[in-house]
Amino acid sequence: MxxxxxxxxxxxxxxPHNGNSFELKSPLLCASGTFGYADEYEGLVDFNELGAxxxxxxxxxxRPGNAGExxxxxxxxxxxxxxxxxxxxxxxxxxxxxxxxQKNINFILNIAGSTLEDYEKLSYIANENDIKALExxxxxxxxxxxxxxxxxxxxxxxxxVKKIRANYKGFLIVKLSPNTTDIKPLAQSAQSAGADCxxxxxxxxxxxxxxxxxxxxxxxxxxxxxxxxxxxxxxSLYMISQIKQVVVIPVIAxxxxxxxNDLFEYISVGADAFQVGTANFLYPSIASDLAKALKxxxxxxxxxxxxxxxxxxxxx
Amino acid sequence: MKDYKGQINSIENIxxxxxxxxxxxALNDCCPGQFISILCPNKIIRRPFSIAxxxxxxxxxxxxxxxxxxxxxxxxxxxxxxxxNFIAPLGxxxxxxxxxxxxxxxxxxxxxxxxxxxxxxxxxxxxxxISGFKANDEVxxxxxxxxxxxxxxxDIEKIIEDKKIELIYSCGPxxxxxKLSKIAKKNNIKTQVALEKVMACSMGVCKGCAIRLFRNNxxxxxxxxxxxxxxxACEVMW
Lengths: 316, 238
Prior knowledge:
The complex is a heterodimer of chains A (316) and B (238). With 316 residues, chain A is an alpha/beta fold. Helices cover 34% and strands 23% of the residues of chain A. The radius of gyration of chain A is 19 Å and the shape is globular. Chain A contains 10 helices and 14 strands. By secondary structure, chain B is an alpha/beta fold. Chain B is 17% helix and 37% strand. Chain B has a 7-stranded antiparallel sheet with strand order 4-3-7-1-2-6-5. A 6-stranded mixed sheet of chain B has the order 10-9-8-11-12-15, with helices on both faces.
């Protein structure tokens, strides 16, 4: 450990295969679907402390999302079945992109599709609009067609990422699903098809059930969707440890991140950056607060840079 | 909209399973129909509450907390002097118009209407607040007329006619509001309803509390937390 007062949590995610990189002011990012298109959180978050925000999943056409109940709270977790409600890529480019650019907010565009062609078009549009980083959602459990289908079959994922890579020159992140028996072949497929980075994990398929006995009868409620929050952290830690066995590209961790220790745990299995998701609902400023807390910790304990801290945790 | 630290100024039981909590904070502006979102320990999402009163001079807001589970239990067990964290003011409230108004509250739904009534009175807008409760011990005071048992909507058309009502504001369970929307359509009377729905982010970001409206021959999505919670009853697709 070195003592140094000019500590910094800047970090660069870099693909060692092709040199593609994405620079972050801090390793703390806000996860897709939990932060809208960023402007909604103005006044509650210190954007200067955030590495980047990942936009809500964007599809080619705008989507109304699922009808009925979309949220189910359970112990230490949240099940959602939003169904990718979003404004569509055109409205994003015309309405949201100028705001993000004007406010100088570093962002990653999250895209999702039902067909290979959807992803091809979306990545082409992203490239044309000079979007610096793309997160490919192949793991949403809440839509009927496509999306997760691509994320569960290594050969299909390879083909998809290859096509996106051909269209898109920026920093390409593939967000993997935990809804598989073995995540390793999927991570390998993403990497060999040209992904620069992996983010893991998306939500886990789950069923929320509520049974009430009222007026002499049982009332039942079922909400099937994707589980997130504190309860999924051990699953994500396992998945990332598996992914790190087979890839050299950087990994962004997601799943139940609430405090500094969670960051350290994810670093210990090889994570290079973090996305805060469900915790944003409780504490809208949590990602920027964690970035400050990380800086304070590093200063107090004599770490001059985030890389040094990572090395110490991994090798210590 | 901001993150506030609030201190419990008073807490009292006002009906079966319902406590009234007055919170002292730096919040200096809000309107009827808006809500606050409170952080509850060990819960994965915040708990939303309609603002039942706002005292600008004393810097207090009032909420009614009905026991539902662990989150509301925590709030009901707070003591005077305790601190809570909340985000406020959230959502878009009632659009006040200078029209003879009928306010209809079903159960705990009376909360935002008490605040609304105060504002209407302040602006000399004629109004009549009618509330309905399942039983005697559930009654929350403050209405011009209280119904116990039955439906708060019984005889409502007669009241609309007798009192020459021009505008209705309402809050309560969806079943009541849906029924009211039919009465509103039939009588061609503008009706604003404050809806309740489980919400995760409470600021329009996650789309967890989306509802569908039928407007200009088109189906559109709106969030209860951000676009609402107040909507035109005749537009809501129940």
